[in-house]
Here is the input.
Amino acid sequence: LGLLNLCLLLVIYWNIYLPEKATTDDYLRMLETIAGYGLGGSTVALFGRVGGGIYTKAADVGADLVGKFEEGMAEDSPDNPGTIADNVGDNVGDIAGMGSDLFGSFAESTCAALVVSGTSAELVNSAALFFPLILSASGIIVSFFTTFFATNLMSIENAEKVGIVIKYQLIISTVLMTPVLFFVTLIGLPYEFHIGNMPDVKVVKYYYCFICAACGLWSGLTIGLFTEYYTSYGDVLKDEKNPVKELVKQCESGAAMNLISGLALGFTSTGVPAVCIAITIYISYSLAGMYGIALGALGMLSTLCIGLTIDGYGPISDNAGGLAEMAQIGEDVRKSTDALDAAGNTTAAIGKGFAIGSAALVSLALFGAFVTRAKLEFVNLLSPLELCGLFIGAMLPYAFSAMTMKSVGVAANKMVQE
Here is the structure.
């Protein structure tokens, strides 16, 4: 739907703003106007992700504090009114929030690629201008075939295999998308074109663009697999020393060791994703400049449909367990839903890994679009103003996270009092 809306917006603006004999500057102005589409997506993502996240975590914490710890109720007990708020919060924060977050990343990366492609006369004067849209559309088709593998060709004998099948969907979608990417770049781009502003104009061949998108695609898979490794209790290799099992052993020493080891595990898990993103940025910029970075972000988001499906599995299985408990169906059903919920927690982490990885590339792609349009040759980080901005920008995520966590505490406290 997001891709369809963007295509309709392009058609409308094409007919309204472009004169009969449009120049490259006319195309650039039109594409800059359409870039507001990505900003709108990010605005919705901000309210959906932050507002929904505060609500769902406050509902979860409030329900647990009152029901489990003060009244001794079971998880998702029908006697606890906070259970309903918790179930609704899963839909608001995890489904709507993650969907709007990934949609914002998709819209921004597509608009950034369109703005940068407006600096190429070869792309502007041909259908290759819409190559980012074709790339995203091909990912939707690949996702349909990937879903067919999971629903018709793979069997699940027990609940423990659910996580494996979901992980295979991620791998299959990446493998299928790779040759599709090459085919799309072969037919959707000229063999060679120039992109960028003087004097930093790059000569780009079509297979350079394929390499950029493929780097983003496989970086996304790597980030997803490593996220699964750091959050899954039992992996395919039956590794008894995986991070989660080691953390379980640390928990035997008390809550303090749990917090310390958990934070250390979370900080350690960022290493491989950061390296993958750095490699993608280096290769993409070396081959196709800022256009390559935007294509790398689109490549990572080309399997967006599968990523959203995997992420949505977690709150769906969690709510299924809650409904089973409130309906008092039986212990055997609850055991099955708990196993599904355990796999769902891992899949939700995979979706968050995709969102964070793509956000890093998208932010750089947007910066690249600005630099390309503003014709900035370099940014001097030793300049006092730029250096101060760098420090303030590095501080903002921590300040924003602190305010968000404080909001969760305030909202949870009000729910407890209610």
In short: The longest helix spans residues 331-374. The mean pLDDT is 80. The two ends are 39 Å apart (CA to CA). DSSP finds 14 helices and two strands in the chain.
